[in-house]
Amino acid sequence: KLTKKFEQNKEKYQTLQDIVRSEIAEKATRAKNSATDALLWLKRALNFIAVMLQELIKSKDEASTCASRAYEQTLRQYHGFIVRGVFAVAVKAAPYRQKFIKTLGKERSEEETLQDLQKYTDLLLENVGTLNEFYKEIGEEKTDKV
Questions:
Q1: What angle do CA 92, 97, 98 make, to 5 degrees?
Q2: How confident is the model at residue 145 (pLDDT cuts 50, 70, 90)?
Q3: Counting beta carbons within 10 angstroms of the beta carbon of residue 137, is it exposed (0 to 12), middle (13 to 18) or buried (19 or more)?
Q4: Is the separation of the CB atoms in 50 and 125 below 8 Å?
């Protein structure tokens, strides 16, 4: 949705915020398949990933436990009973911590990989924070459940 909107006018849409502002002007933020809604869910998903990685960095818990804690802090409030159940089942498919870290770091040590993850997570959270502030500023931070 975001890419489709961007490709409609690459000159006009220099930032994601430009796309949302355009939809605000067109009164299209609540339209089905709006870029505004797509970006809202993207920022929520990115926040979930960042919090999950933070949990992985600060604890020795399995990835599934880190994902569950991150879900509670980020996405759960936007999900109804059915979607919460789907997540509970899906999280069981998370890889074991050691395998996850080894896959991310390839030949690097766990310590090096976690240091890199911290840098990545800090930058990701900075970007998510910018989008959170923007959505609050424009009044598009919806709390509807799916």
A1: 140
A2: confident
A3: exposed
A4: yes
